[in-house]
Amino acid sequence: MVAEPAPSNALDPLPENPPIAALSSESRNGSPDAANGDAPRQPGWAAATVRFFLKSRGDRRWDLFIRATAAVAALGIPLLLIVPGSVTLVWLAVLSLPANSPLSPILPAAFEPLIMEAAKYESALVVTLVATSAYMYMEYVNWYVYVWVFSWEKLASFRGYRSVRWGMEHFARWPFWTVVVFAFTPLPFWAARSLAILHGYSLRRFMVATVIGRVPRFFAYAWLGGLIHVPTLWLVAVVVVTTLGAIAIRLLRGEPLLADGAPSEAPVDGPK
Fold first, then answer.
1. Fewest C-beta atoms under 10 Å: which of 81, 118, 182, 220?
2. Whole-angstrom Cα distance, residue 42 to residue 44?
3. 139-164: per-residue pLDDT in tens?
4. Where are the domains of the chain?
5. pLDDT at position 21, please?
6. Whole-number Å distance between alpha carbons of 59 and 57
């Protein structure tokens, strides 16, 4: 008698491992989808565009400055379309950035005339709020630019200068109010920023102290500009004359127009 083949059992367990051909196909292509003939997905145009604009280019100081200015200008375009009457505040915000950027060493008196000019068309309070917002936005960028510059190896000995050590010792006594005083007065604010970074001062406290010092200063210029209405030509003359003067002084001293390091001026004494 010939034995009949045993009936197949539908409940037999599946094999534990997939076929070898499937494994080799997945390992070659990297994913199960690739085994089915699907090519790996390429990044979309949106992701490629974002990477293009976020990629760092050239000198970090100028890279951040150009990006910061472009961002504010781009935001100002739809604002002008929605609120056409905001044109004064938009140009104030945009022009405030170069006046407080790496260009500031050769633009020593560009920001205050902008505030006074804008106050002819808007209230002093609104002008002060916009000017302060734009300034603090750029100050935040400047902080990280200075942190990056102070990490340069060629500035490793900067802390050893006698004037820097003297400044850090006095800054450590009243750091908050030192920043407030520098922010309120015509003293060079890059010095307070530099001392705060070298001292390891809190960025949050530094920004708060800067606002406390800058707001009354900006309001005073805005109030004065709205009260007196200084002719625009005079304000332009102030900017041009002070800019030419700053450039002439640097050329006569044999200094570059824009310093290579964070401070616009280096200490005259050597490390001791």
1. 81
2. 6
3. 998 998 888 888 876 666 777 788 88
4. 65-253
5. 46
6. 7
Which backbone phi and psi does 174 adopt, to 5 degrees?
-135, 70
Residue type, 228: I
Whole-model pTM: value is 0.70
Q: Within 13 Å and on the Cβ side, how many CA atoms surround 249? A: 13
The separation between the first and the last C-alpha atoms of the chain, rounded to the nearest angstrom, is 111
- Which pLDDT value is given to residue 162? 85
Structural tokens at position 37 = 């003939």
Structure tokens belonging to residue 162:
């006698």
- The pLDDT tens digits of the residues spanning 44-67 come to 765 655 554 555 555 565 666 677
Distances in Å between the Cα of 143 and the Cα atoms of 36, 95, 147, 255 are: 52, 19, 6, 24
Cβ 63 vs Cβ 57: under 8 Å: yes
pLDDT in tens, 226-244: 999 999 999 999 999 999 9
Q: Are 110 and 148 in contact (CB under 8 A)?
A: no
Which ranges constitute the DSSP H helices of the chain? 20-29, 32-35, 45-54, 60-82, 87-99, 111-118, 124-150, 162-173, 175-184, 189-199, 203-228, 232-253
In degrees, to the nearest 5, what angle opens at C-alpha 143 toward C-alphas 138 and 147?
A: 145
Question: Is residue 94 within 8 Å of residue 69, measured between CB atoms?
Answer: yes
DSSP-derived secondary structure for 33-50: HHHTTPPPPPPPHHHHHH
